[in-house]
Amino acid sequence: MTETFDIRSRLSGALHDRAEAWRFVADFAAYWQQPLQPGDGWSGAEVETAEERLGLVLPTVLREAYLLFGRRTDLTSNHDRLLKPDELYLADGALVYRVENQGAASWGVLLEELGDDDPGTVMRSDLADKTQERWEPWESSLTAACVEMVMSEAVLFGGGFTDFLDVDAEEAALERLFQELPGVGRDMRWFASADVLIRELDGFCLNVRARTEEALDQLRDSVPGDWLEG
Asked: Is the pTM for the entire model greater than 0.85?
């Protein structure tokens, strides 16, 4: 297990450099979940088969993510789901690579940007009136989208010390007790200490992950409220 992990400084580098992003994912996994192992990614042949089926070449970042940790469902699919290579599909001018757990939204890369190593990403909500569905800009880079995915799925991991809190506004407590991390993820703010990772989603809820039960209990005491598991 990684002895120390300065998530704030490491995240800053990960959001601006692809190689740093993959080092971040590896060390993040070791610190918050389990270290990456051989076999945690899809094989090159499996990715190439998907490309042949779709008649296109995946962006470099998506290919590298699949090869490095694409099979690690604890990093990719606790809530929303990174599609397996053989599940990738095209929809209205975009390659869809991730879906919301109940099908309420999907994330993709516009076909016109597939030639970029690290293209931006788009999101489309599933609406009752299909004529109103549109691809909307999401993350500015696929690298940032992958980093956000790993972090978000970690705080939603059902097998660890996790909890959930509906909040009106606990920002003052969070800012006082924890360091705020560089911005990653749309409508998200992130806070952390050595043993706690917190995602504030759109100002209305907290998803938290702790490394120990004691750290989680201390968080609940510091940020009072009707914790789901507390």
From this structure: yes
* Angle, helices 18-32/7-14, rounded to nearest 10 degrees: 150
Over residues 94-119, the mean pLDDT reads 96
93 phi, psi to nearest 5 deg: 85, 15
pLDDT of residue 3: 67
Structural domain including 164 reads 160-222
Query: Which residue shows structure tokens 């979940």?
Result: 33
Contact present, 38 and 114 (Cβ < 8 Å): no
Q: What is the pLDDT of residue 1?
A: 45
Do 198 and 138 lie in one domain? The reply is no
DSSP assigned state of 98: E
The domain tally of the chain equals 2
Report the candidate in 85, 104, 186, 103 with the shortest Cα–Cα distance to residue 95. 85
Q: How far apart are CA 37 and CA 126, in angstroms?
A: 36
Closest listed residue to residue 193, CA positions, set 41, 1, 6: 6
- Provide mean pLDDT across the span 51-58: 98
